[in-house]
Amino acid sequence: MGDARLGSRLKAVRTAAGLTQAELAERAGVSRKTVNTVENGVFIPSTLLALELARALDTTVEGLFFLAD
Amino acid sequence: MAAMDDREMRKEARARRKKFASALATIVLGAMMSGFGFVMGSQRTGDAATGWGVLAGAGIGLALGGAILAWILRPGANGWRIETEPLKRDRLQAQRVRQLWIFPIVTLALLVLSTIDMQAILAGEGSFRDFIGVSLPVLYAWIVASITMGWDHQSRTNKRFLEDELTGVLRARAIGAAFVVLMFGATIAFVLGLWRPEMGIAALPFVLAGAGATAGIRFAWLDREFGKDG
């Protein structure tokens, strides 16, 4: 499910925003487990979820995810 | 997503009050049934007394069931505290996972018990009880598969708490594993059936129970794995 090509700054952005996984999950309308797996790179979010997470953290999708070349 | 709004909170509180009142009504009904059964039964003999005794017993059972339910739903109990959305999501998801651990175990236990019933049926001596016995593990396999697929009542009524992208991924992987078991098991059942048709029939509950249990246990296992902090 994970993919080494996907880099993530989600955890860094979330902690910088002073949010817990549970708080971010509530804002994005998903379970804490979902946030946890996205942060750990176990699960690649869909475009929709990536946009939800970006909106919840007041940033862009590119601000959260990048291609790890 | 915003926290549960006032309207939803009031709706939930109303539903809990209704359930508590139903539990109290069940106690009253049970008490009336048992009282009536005792009074009438004490004036009768033989089969009539037994019949009233059964009514009294059923009444006691109903009253006890109602009392347990009323205790669980009593005002001030945990359930009466208004849950926030994340709490409710966590509780319902944990409840689903618990079911997906327990029901497959029940399915497999029933499957073991049903082997004697299956032997009686294949010998042409099956009674109604035997047919029920062999049907139960299949029924439970369906229940497990339904919970995994989100077809059960709980999943449908609480969709927004129980369904998200991760759930879809867990489901796809769990059903994928169950499909492998189903294909493999059905092939074995087919081969057995070619050799001895009754063996093919006897193998089918194992295949269905195995596939259902695999779906449930795989889902619960993956949920547990993904819940770990990395």
UniProtKB/TrEMBL annotation, chain A:
Domain named HTH cro/C1-type: residues: 10-64
Instruction: Name the CDD domains on file.
Output: HTH_XRE
Q: Which GO terms describe its molecular function?
A: DNA binding
Name the keywords, alphabetized.
Answer: DNA-binding
Domain of life, per the record?
Bacteria
Protein name, UniProt field: Transcriptional regulator
UniProtKB/TrEMBL annotation, chain B:
**What's the protein called, per UniProt?**
Uncharacterized protein
Chain segments annotated as transmembrane = 20-40, 52-73, 100-122, 134-151, 172-195, 201-221
Task: Tell me which species this is from.
Answer: Brevundimonas subvibrioides
Domain of life per record:
Bacteria
The alphabetical list of record keywords is:
Membrane, Transmembrane, Transmembrane helix
